[in-house]
Specification:
Cytochrome C Oxidase, Chain A, two-stranded antiparallel sheet, 17 helices, about 0% strand
Length: about 575
């Protein structure tokens, strides 16, 4: 293993080694990746078995967890909440330090954030394993979990707040030393993600601390499911962009360097991150179209703004495609579309990102359909939503995170990636398997298959027209299971068996382009935070006010100590 350099004591500019990590980086980022992969190893194993359970031709029992909804909760929480959150914090810490060329403002604060998250994970995970928190990853009331589940989630959220606070303090210190200079695009993305995440997670924090935790402790006897759903979806939709922004950071800042070209438009990238920060939150009512406690007016306005948030996706498609064309032309493409074939299709780091982009095209199209007020009535709570969700989170997000893992883990270890051909096969298999899963699960939903239902239970009704499509999802699950095995072979091999020294530098930019104009308004954070606050008060205030009813059920005192 390559020697790690000691971290500097000062907070001033620091020149990081290109082929290794300083000691503080290696331990902090390495521990985040370790927890993320442990959670993923359990959560991802349960995925294929969900398809086997729901396939009429198989109807296999669930391994590890005997109860379907317990397994489904573990699958969602460990994959969509734990794996993503730990990876996001690891990526954010690495990008911030390397791009700004300075260590974190407070390493102690970063470690405090990590341990709060990990203690919270232990509490929530223990409740799930004990069978006391089979409430799925959305944990809607009136379903009730053990108090440890809710307290654990609250600690995870607080831990992320402290982590992003540390990143913000580091950015402020850099800004004082670099007046008038544009912050590198990757860090701009991290900052917008942190602001959006803090704002959005206030909703679920309020839900947990004022409703779910008191209910599970027996402090209150009953609560209001409609208010709970509103508070969750204030958080739930921007949660998707919390996952997605690190993928965008990779596409916008890392992919161009890996292709050996410059991003087509740095300014357009800043606009995309800013638009996501502003528009990701005040659109969550499109998840509540069938809820009777939300007015039709609110649903229509949120529907309109949902289509606005599609604009950053279109801008991203243009910007990244233009950058890919530059890469293809540099590699010798001459014809109109020849640049598509002149890509490094044999590089797992590149292919994982391209695979995520391909799946995201279909995730975006199906998302627009979900957001359509009328069409959503036919799609809501069917397996269609599961297909859409997986092409975004298990598609664009997961494949891009594995791309980052394929160069970041070797840096943590100080050795080359183990078996790159296996990593390449893993990427292609995941692309094929997830495309098949999204298509067949979506079609099953159109044929009437419902989601969040144990379709393999005795007596469960499966529409005959949906049955063959659910069987095909099991085939997709097998392909994805093989891909997951290859992923962990590569990971374990890189950590324990790789012998060759690392040669590739991290794809990090330390300077923003000086020959491309970007208004100083982009970093006027007081202005944009005010816009975020005002827009959400306007869009969510009436929704919450209409649903809130403290007299008839929101806060009915129970028997103190009557905890679950």
């Amino acid at each position: 293993m390559q020697a790690t350099q000691a971290a500097p004591r000062s907070e001033s500019s620091f020149k990081f080694p290109t082929l290794s990590l300083v000691g503080s980086e290696r331990s902090l980022i390495g521990m985040h990746i370790l927890i993320a992969l442990v959670a993923l190893s359990i959560g991802i194993t349960l995925g294929p078995f969900q398809t086997f359970r729901r396939a009429p031709a198989l109807q296999w029992d669930m391994p590890i967890f005997s109860y379907y909804y317990q397994a489904l909760t573990a699958h969602g929480v460990l994959n969509a909440l734990v794996f993503t959150t730990y990876m996001i914090m690891a990526i954010s810490y690495f990008v911030t330090q390397r791009s700004l060329e300075r260590t974190l403002k407070s390493l102690k604060l970063a470690w405090l954030a990590f341990w709060l998250m990990t203690i919270g994970l232990a509490l929530a995970g223990g409740a799930i394993i004990a069978g006391e928190a089979s409430v799925l990853y959305t944990f809607y009331p009136p379903m009730q979990a053990h108090w440890a589940f809710y307290l654990g989630l609250a600690l995870v959220i607080v831990g992320t707040w402290l982590g992003f606070l540390d990143i913000g303090l580091t950015y402020n210190a850099w800004r004082k030393d670099h007046p008038g200079e544009k912050v590198p695009l990757a860090v701009y993305g991290v900052i917008t993600n942190g602001i959006m995440w803090f704002t959005a997670s206030l909703g679920v924090a309020i839900e947990v601390l004022t409703m779910l935790l008191p209910m599970s402790l027996g402090i209150i006897d009953t609560t209001d499911p409609q208010v709970g759903r509103i508070l969750f979806w204030f958080f739930g939709h921007p949660l998707v962009y919390f996952w997605l922004i690190p993928a965008y950071i990779s596409w916008y800042t890392m992919l161009p360097k890996q292709l050996g070209v410059r991003l087509f438009s740095d300014t357009m990238g800043r606009l995309v991150f800013l638009m996501i920060m502003i528009f990701a939150i005040p659109i969550g009512v499109h998840h509540l179209y069938v809820d009777p406690g939300v007015s039709e007016v609110a649903k229509i306005f949120h529907s309109i703004f949902t289509f606005v948030v599609a604009i950053p996706s279109f801008l991203t498609a243009f910007n990244i495609a233009a950058t890919m064309e530059r890469g293809g032309r540099k590699r010798g493409a001459k014809s109109l579309l020849g640049w598509i074939w002149h890509q490094p299709w044999d590089n797992p780091v590149i292919v994982s990102q391209y695979g995520g982009m391909i799946l995201f095209i279909f995730g975006g199209i199906t998302g627009i359909m979900n957001a359509s007020f009328n069409m959503n009535i036919a799609l809501h709570n069917t397996a269609w939503v599961v297909g859409h969700f997986h092409t975004t989170v298990a598609g664009a997000v997961f494949m891009t995170y594995t791309s980052i893992l394929y160069w970041l883990l070797p840096m943590v270890r100080g050795r080359k990636l183990f078996a790159p051909k296996l990593a390449l096969a893993q990427a292609y298999l995941w692309l094929i398997g997830m495309f098949m899963f999204g298509a067949t699960m979506g079609r099953a939903g159109l044929e009437g298959a419902v989601r969040r239902t144990d379709a393999g239970a005795p007596g469960a009704y499966v529409p005959p027209a949906a049955a063959p499509w659910l069987n095909w999802t099991a085939v997709a699950g097998m392909i994805l299971g093989i891909s997951a095995i290859l992923l962990f072979i590569v990971v374990i091999g890189t950590v324990f068996f790789s012998k060759e020294n690392l040669e590739a530098e991290p794809p990090i930019h330390t300077k923003a382009p000086t020959d491309e104009y970007a208004s100083k308004l982009f970093e006027n954070w007081k202005l944009w935070i005010a816009v975020v606050i005002i827009s959400n008060v306007i869009m969510w205030g009436p929704v919450l006010w209409q649903a809130f009813d403290p007299v008839n059920g929101f806060w009915v005192l129970g028997v103190p100590g009557a905890a679950r």
